[in-house]
Design brief:
The complex is a heterodimer of chains A (about 260) and B (about 350). By secondary structure, chain A is an alpha/beta fold. Chain A has a single domain, classed as Rossmann fold, CATH 3.40.50.970. Chain A has ten helices and nine strands. In chain A, the strands form two sheets. A seven-stranded mixed beta sheet of chain A has the order 2-1-3-4-8-7-9, sandwiched between helices. A two-stranded antiparallel sheet of chain A has the order 5-6. In chain A, strand 5 and strand 6 form a beta hairpin. Chain B is built from 14 helices and 15 strands. Chain B has a seven-stranded mixed beta sheet, with helices on both faces. Classes of the chains: A alpha/beta (about 260), B alpha/beta (about 350). The interface between A and B is large, with 33 and 38 residues. Strand 2 of chain A pairs parallel with strand 9 of chain B. The complex binds thiamine diphosphate and iron/sulfur cluster. Iron/sulfur cluster binds next to helix 9 of chain A. The site of iron/sulfur cluster has 11 residues of chain A, from helix 9.
């Protein structure tokens, strides 16, 4: 049998996967196993597949993903904590032909930025919101988030979230789905390859639907924070499946009538 | 000659915004400036010029809408009054930190807290000394008439874009609410230019544009701050504006801006009718402050009275400018009370001439 050389293997027809050209060469700063990197990749792939690079303006939040602009080869703005939907509102209204998205954590979107989230979605701003719910404040070192589960531990609820004392977790995606201005609302996860594939389909819809000008597209990704949760990546994903998903069930909350 | 109209100061701001080719206005109602958005909405600027006008859910949202629009290189603005401007401070600091141009209008009311809806000048410190966090500066224009409310919209945008820095019109409830004749400037079309630094979508011919105020590297963060400071020195060098009224033969000097300067103009007449040779120095830019020009006056005058509708804020900058060479004192009223010309002359006699 003739020997196969490397050059013969590296041929376009043999290509099964390549990194999206929308991702830059910068090394991600995320903890190994963190869901943020996966969601970045999915979004980058969707932007590339839909050929939207030259039309895209993205907004990064304050949170672990604040430096997302280093990883994506698109125009981006960095917002103050919680205010990304306000920026996106203005951008889309001033340049309605562009594709505008925000990328926000749970503290950003569902605590300090609740008003901006609700009002942008209620006005039906034609923007796409990616909401990374990891149930904790990752960037500041693992404090309680609005989405922290009952009895779940965080650095500001070291004995577990006592809902009598600290209030209940907020299912903001459920609220968004009830608003007349939201168009497509879905909850996904990226903790298994199967879920990654589903999440990508959902992100793609949320991006494509923006062209329809029918209202806000909102994708929650139930994600992990192995550093904040103080678990290995594998344990974190298992914990997510066993604890986060029963409380934040996956699936579409609002789909456009076709 | 431009079109003449009788208008409120707040309405003049709104009309000037449309005429200046503003792309967007984002605001939240608060007395005494709500007429700005009311006028805009009534004018249907989306039909007149395509300008976007949106009532935000809060001043927090409004200023961040301004940030988003400014980062696209658009001519965007907001207006509010004191408590609302306080709420915007984080956003203003971000805008300065990201070097974005925009126009802010503060129609000042008395404080602290909810205070009063009556006019005041007690937000001087907030505008010229920072207000938000970090070492930044706001170009601050102080109109003294409805005419200047209109003119400074155009000037404010011009300066904001020239230096990529937020500019503020620091007005007050009296100028916002009063009606005067105003000569409106001719409308200019909205700009179609795509600014090279703006986030408008990364096209193949350029690198991606990133608008951020974040840099975690101390060296780079310091370098950036030094660059900002250099820009601020340049603005201080080139953009000082002021007006001198009856200063040529003055022995004494009032310094006042905005509504106070209107009162003081009367006080100058009154004092002169009593034989007191006094003039008025009216700073038009509160930052950059006309420090050199005020210092120059110390060669000529024996004392300065700063007249303000506050507990004495600008007087600190006058003292810094004068460097102890002559006597500087302050007279002011607070809580929405406007001083009378009589009071002002009396205080000049008591605190400066007699003192
Ligand atoms: C006004 C303001 N308050 C507080 C902070 C500090 N802060 C930075 S990130 C963060 C929480 C981020 O958590 P989340 O949005 O859940 O994102 P994650 O880091 O978990 O991805 C906080 C409180 C800030 N930067 N600005
Ligand atoms: S702290 Fe948590 S959210 Fe942040 S990068 Fe690490 S794992 Fe991800």
């Amino acid at each position: 049998m003739a020997e196969i050389t490397l050059d013969q293997i590296i041929q376009p027809e043999n290509m099964v996967y390549t990194r999206s050209r929308i991702m830059t060469d910068t090394v991600l700063h995320y903890c190994p196993g963190c869901g943020h990197g996966t969601v970045h990749r999915l979004l980058a792939e969707v932007i590339e597949e839909l050929d939207l690079q030259s039309e895209t303006i993205g907004i990064t939040p304050v949170g672990c993903s604040v430096l997302m602009y280093n990883y994506m080869d698109i125009d981006m703005q960095e917002a103050a904590h919680g205010r990304a939907p306000a920026l996106a509102t203005a951008i889309k209204r001033l340049m309605s032909e562009k594709f505008v998205f925000t990328y926000q954590g749970d503290g950003d979107l569902a605590a300090i930025g609740t008003a901006e989230t609700i009002h942008a979605c209620n006005r039906g701003e034609n923007i796409t919101i990616l909401f990374i719910n990891n149930g904790i404040y990752g960037m500041t070192g693992g404090q309680m988030a609005p989405t922290t589960l009952p009895d779940m531990k965080a650095s500001t609820c070291p004995y577990g979230r006592d809902v009598q004392m600290m209030g209940n977790p907020l299912k903001i995606t459920d609220i968004v789905a009830t608003l007349p201005g939201s168009y497509y609302v879905t909850r996904q996860s990226v903790h298994t390859p199967g879920n990654v594939r589903k999440a990508k389909k959902a992100i793609r819809k949320a991006v494509e639907y923006q062209k329809r000008n029918q209202g806000t597209c909102f994708v929650e990704i139930v994600s992990n924070c192995n550093s904040g949760w103080k678990m290995t990546p594998v344990d974190a994903n298992q914990w997510l499946e066993e604890n986060m998903l029963p409380f934040y069930p996956l699936g579409d909350l609002k789909v456009p009538e076709e | 000659m431009g079109e003449l109209r009788l208008m409120k100061g707040n309405e003049a701001v709104a009309e000037a915004a449309i005429r200046a080719g503003a792309d967007g206005y984002f605001g939240y109602p608060i007395t005494p400036q709500s007429e700005v958005m009311e006028y805009l909405m009534a004018e249907k600027p989306h039909e007149r010029t395509g300008m976007v006008v949106l009532q935000a859910e809060s001043e927090l949202a409004a200023i961040n809408m301004v940030y988003g629009g400014a980062a696209c290189g658009k001519k965007v603005m907001t207006s509010s009054s004191s408590p609302g401007i306080s709420l915007m401070q984080e956003g203003i600091s971000y805008i300065a930190g990201a070097e974005l141009p925009c126009l802010l209008v503060n129609v000042v009311r008395g404080g602290p807290g909810l205070g009063t809806i009556q006019p005041a000048q007690s937000d001087y410190f907030q505008s010229v000394k920072g207000g938000g966090h970090g070492d930044y500066r706001l170009i601050t224009l102080a109109p003294a008439s409805v005419q200047e409310m209109s003119d400074f919209v155009r000037l404010g945008f011009e300066l904001a874009f020239k230096y990529r820095n937020p500019a503020m019109i620091l007005s007050d409830g009296a100028i916002g609410q009063m009606m005067e004749k105003v000569e409106l400037f001719d409308p200019v079309p909205r700009s179609k230019e795509i600014l090279p630094w703006a986030t408008t979508g990364k096209t193949p011919d350029r690198e991606r544009n990133i608008i951020t105020s974040l840099d975690l590297d101390p060296k780079r963060q310091e370098d950036f701050n030094l660059k900002l400071q250099k820009k601020y020195r340049e603005i201080e060098e080139k953009e000082v504006r002021f007006e001198k009224i009856q200063c040529d033969d003055a022995e004494y000097l009032f310094v006042a801006y905005g509504t106070s300067s209107r009162v003081v103009q009367k006080a100058v007449q009154l004092a002169r009718s009593r034989g007191i040779r006094v003039g008025l120095f009216r700073p038009i830019t509160l930052w950059p402050f006309p420090s050199k020009e005020i210092f120059a006056m110390t060669e000529q005058v024996k004392g300065i009275l700063s007249v303000e509708m506050s507990a004495g804020q600008m007087v600190e900058d006058i003292r810094l400018a004068v460097k102890g060479k002559i006597k500087v004192d302050y007279y002011g009223r607070m809580g929405g009370i406007i001083p009378t010309p009589d009071e002002v002359v009396e205080m000049l006699e008591k605190k400066i001439i007699g003192g």
